[in-house]
Specification:
Elements lengths: L11 H11 L11 E6 L2 E6 L2 H17 L5 H14 L5 H17 L1 H13 L12 H4 L3 H8 L9 H36 L1
Antiparallel strand pairs: 1-2
């Protein structure tokens, strides 16, 4: 674990205020109709649907607990960590995290792999049987780190490595089909314009 930005004795709601302030998120952006994904210097707007808001509330708390920053590299790391520890019923989290895993494999492979193994060592994460409510927000960062087992010492196993390989194969397969589909659509549009 690196130097702690969010100390164990901070309440989650106070740590979130620091996090939102540091990354210029207006109250997490949960109330906005649209959110943006940055790809290079381009921002792609996407609808901020309820399923995404529900997932990102836990995702933001995971940033506090793991200390992965809300940067391009940090999003790849937290994406790998969340996939490794499981996103439960939050399908939007699975989709967005696999997207982060895709670019992370190319640009930050070592950090991504380490984050994935850290996620495998956790007992759980907040996507599993936790409610996002005042009770959660009034708990301390340290309590939640202990709850999910973020500092649990466990050796990496062959199963951990196999799971990483499977996730990478799924990521590459999905990316291939996405880009192939995109290519077909562009070709169809180009042919109809001619």
């Amino acid at each position: 674990m690196r130097n702690l930005v969010y100390s164990d004795n901070l309440k989650i709601k106070d740590a979130l205020d620091l996090y939102f302030s540091k990354y210029h998120f207006e109250n997490g952006g949960y109330h906005l109709k649209w959110f943006r994904i940055k790809v290079g210097s381009v921002f792609i707007p996407l609808p901020n649907i309820k399923a995404r808001v529900d997932a990102v509330k836990f995702h933001d708390v995971h940033h506090l607990l793991t200390e992965y920053p809300a940067t391009l590299k940090g999003e790849a790391e937290i994406g790998a960590w969340e996939i490794a520890s499981g996103c439960g019923k939050y399908y939007v989290a699975w989709v967005l995290n696999f997207g982060s895993l895709t670019y992370g494999l190319f640009f930050f492979p070592k950090s991504l792999f380490t984050a994935f193994l850290n996620g495998r060592k956790c007992k759980t994460n907040l996507y599993h049987n936790i409610r996002y409510d005042e009770n959660l927000l009034n708990r301390t960062v340290g309590e939640l780190r202990h709850l999910i087992g973020i500092n649990d010492a466990r050796r990496d196993t062959a199963i951990d490595y196999l799971y990483f390989i499977i996730c990478c194969l799924l990521t590459f397969t999905a990316a291939f089909f996405f880009f192939y589909f995109f290519y077909i659509v562009v070709r169809l549009i180009a042919n109809t314009i001619k």
